[in-house]
Design brief:
- With 233 residues, the protein is of the alpha+beta class.
- The chain has one domain (11-231): Orthogonal Bundle (Hypothetical protein af1432), CATH 1.10.3210.
- It has 10 helices and 4 strands.
- The protein has helices spanning 23-36, 40-55, 57-60, 64-76, 88-98, 106-117, 138-153, 196-202, 209-215, 226-231; strands at residues 11-13, 163-169, 184-191, 218-225.
- It has a 4-stranded mixed beta sheet with strand order 1-2-3-4.
Length: 233
């Protein structure tokens, strides 16, 4: 399916293209699936995260290795749920640090533990966390974390997972405006069944605040019924 870009010249993408799997990602997927009984949510978050990474590349300036880290973090971020939902972020970070079976360097292990620990809840200022070493690039990882949190917010573990269309428009100055508008990330969540619960989950502003703050953009999330998407196929 191809969706034409709107007149505002927004770049439009859908996170449905299969990724070439690297060995570390495949190992992490097996590791997580053994503990959680599957990794479907994690794969979806990885796909959304890599799409967000590609769309917002003009702002974040990250490298290809950081895109890989977004996907790895998406795969392991919820592994702590194997020990219970409460406190699963801290539990998962501890599991990542303790399990040497994952084919990671020491730096990558710290990075994944950091991203797992802070994928929800309060995020410390760069350099004030409890995981990274002083020579780790905390500012870079904060951008990766922002992408991870946004991607996680756009998929439901216990809700219907939406089909997503993500559109990106660079900032511009409208006629008569005093300031340049911030770049806009517009996300449309297509659901088979609309519900108040789904709207609360996918349109929760706080889940995108870190992305807005770190990248200096705006995020708008809309809910639509899936039949509208099929009509333009």
């Amino acid at each position: 399916m191809r969706i034409s870009a709107p007149k505002s010249k927004m770049r439009v993408a859908r996170p449905n293209k299969p990724e070439v799997t690297d060995p570390a990602f495949a190992a992490a997927e097996r590791w997580v699936a053994r503990r959680l009984g599957g990794a479907a949510h994690e794969r979806r978050v990885a796909d959304v995260g890599s799409t967000l990474f590609d769309l917002t590349a003009p702002l974040h300036g990250l490298a290809a290795a950081d895109r890989r880290m977004v996907r790895l973090a998406a795969m392991v971020h919820d592994v702590g749920r194997s020990a219970g939902v409460e406190g699963h972020a801290a539990a998962g970070a501890g599991m990542v640090l303790a399990d040497g079976s994952l084919p990671l360097s020491d730096a990558e292990r710290r990075e994944l533990a950091y991203l797992t620990l802070y994928h929800r809840g309060t995020v410390p200022e760069a350099g004030d966390d409890d995981v990274l070493h002083p020579d780790d690039d905390a500012g870079r990882l904060l951008k990766v974390l922002a992408l991870l949190r946004a991607a996680d917010a756009l998929d439901g573990r216990s809700l219907e997972s939406p089909r997503l269309v993500l559109a990106w428009a660079a900032g511009h100055k409208a006629a008569g405006a005093r300031r340049v508008a911030r770049p806009l990330l517009r996300v449309t969540c297509y659901l088979e069944n609309d519900s108040a619960k789904a709207r609360r989950a996918y349109q929760r502003r706080k889940k995108f605040r870190l992305l807005e703050d770190v990248l200096g953009c705006r995020v708008e999330v809309e809910i639509a019924l899936a039949h509208a998407l099929r009509m333009v196929a």
